[in-house]
Amino acid sequence: MRRKGHRTFHNKSKTGCKTCRLRRVKCDEKKPTCERCISGKRSCAWYEPPKTWLFEPTSTTALRTDPQERRAVQFFQERTTPILAAFSKFTERFWHSFIGQMAHAEPAVRHMTIALATRQEAAGCPPDDLYGLSRIQSNAFSSALRLLVRPQPEVSTLAILLSCLLFVGYEAFQDPMEMTPASVKHLGAGLRILQDQSIMASLPSTSSCAEAVHLYLEPMYLQLEMMLSMLMTPLATYRRRGANADLEQPKLPSRFQHLLAARITFYRIFRWHFAFRSHGINEWTRQSPAFLTVRSLFLEWHRLVMLYNESLPPTDLVQKHGLMSMVSHWRLYMVSLVHSASALAGTVPGSGSPYLPDGGRVKTSLVDLMDPKHVRITFIIDRQVLPMLEVCDWSDCGILCDPALRIWPTAEIKKLADGRGLVKLVVSA
Hints:
Layout: H1 18-23, H2 35-39, H3 67-85, H4 92-105, H5 107-122, H6 127-148, H7 157-172, H8 182-195, H9 197-201, H10 207-228, E1 237-238, H11 259-277, H12 289-311, H13 317-340, E2 364-368, E3 374-381, E4 410-415, E5 421-428
Parallel strand pairs: 1-2
Antiparallel strand pairs: 2-3, 3-5, 4-5
Helix pairs in contact: 3-4, 3-5, 3-13, 4-5, 5-6, 5-7, 7-8, 7-10, 8-10, 11-12, 12-13
């Protein structure tokens, strides 16, 4: 006989209808209306199943990886993503959330994340591990290329745009002594897609896809395009008359004691580069003494930074992430420097319709050296491109990189009467 006040035990249903779960009664889980709700004449409501993917996987093979690939994906999430997210604060959600979803949904993106992660890890691994990492890196990179050359709809436009962005990072992680402007070609490929209205119109109309393109990919491409054009020959350079102190080559220390010293030294080389080139330097090719001098200073800066990195204890992850963020910015500047001394230095491929000789939409129009504490680089931005700047956060960086140590400049943005934008990137000592 059941005691008064004692409830009979039954298994609790975790998949029943919302009505029964709120009433804390057992549901028979019959759909669309369960028997309890029918007998009680209640509305039978069901929870919406949780949405697993922002982007649906193209195939089940996207989810199957071997242990080495899973390890590379984990390295990308834990070590590579913080560096990419530190590039600009507004992209943090993209790199920490969207990139993981896209890597599951698109095999080409997954292979590129593996290639980028293993290339970064190989740069600082023991010699015994180098062969294995290089093999994984090469296989992943080749697999991504094979997938990306397939015709649509086998590979989505969104996957191509993201892969081009990952290609830029991948090329920038190579040996600085062998750095080539391949990053510029990948950037140009992505820019041409963004400017092709017929391709953009074919993108899925889902909110997640629109958010990925308009809130993250387009602004990131714009920032990279501006950054890679900063060291190219400006149309005009303002500097003090007779300010010969600007021509004094910066002296690098034997070693850096802290990251702030590394940033200030980089700024001095950066500023001296403009003053040096504006002082009657006519020849600027990859073999000219002027180019080789500037390049050797930037390479020595990189050597000193990596020497400082070796002196840090392994547990000082915040300092190490901040340092790697600085190095990733430096690598993009080096790509721009190499490209500025090439025959195609008049434009970033793909920045205009196609290969505009006047430098496209983000051509450097003025470099101001009048202020000894700042370098202001001015761009005139087309009215179609200006809305992309509204979502960019130019004044801050990721949570793992102290803004005081950041190489990436802040920006002063104004809208002109004709609808174009006036953008001043400011690099400060």
